[in-house]
């Protein structure tokens, strides 16, 4: 699996976030949140980047991530986890299991 994380990458993403807050239509909804629309990130100086692979959502990885967060909450902050946070995590897991 390809992972590309550099200073320039984060600058591009932050730019996309700022553009979105200013009304740009540069994202698509997914079970895990907003993802950049194809062609909205400037990759001209990056060489060959497989954007579909970069933003591919793997159901197994996301289920495992939800389980790890649930375990952390249960072991580290069982009495201090806000109800809304637990609810959002349950909703995320439901979306991942249903829609990915």
Question: Could you please describe the fold and organization of this structure?
Answer:
The protein is built from four helices and two strands; from the N terminus they run H-E-E-H-H-H. It is mostly helical and 100 residues long. The chain has a two-stranded antiparallel sheet with strand order 1-2. Helix 3 packs antiparallel against helix 4. The longest helix has 18 residues, at 59-76. The radius of gyration is 16 Å and the shape is elongated.
Order of helices and strands: HEEHHH
Helix content: 40-55%
Percent of sequence in beta strands:
5-15%
- Main sheet properties: 2 strands, antiparallel
The Rg value, from CA coordinates, equals 16 Å
Give the tally of β-strands. Answer: 2
Strand order of the largest sheet: 1-2
Low-confidence stretches: none
**Globular, elongated, flat, extended or rod-shaped: what is the shape?**
elongated
The overall average pLDDT, rounded, is: 90
* N-to-C CA distance: 17 Å
Compute the number of helices: 4
Structural class: mainly alpha
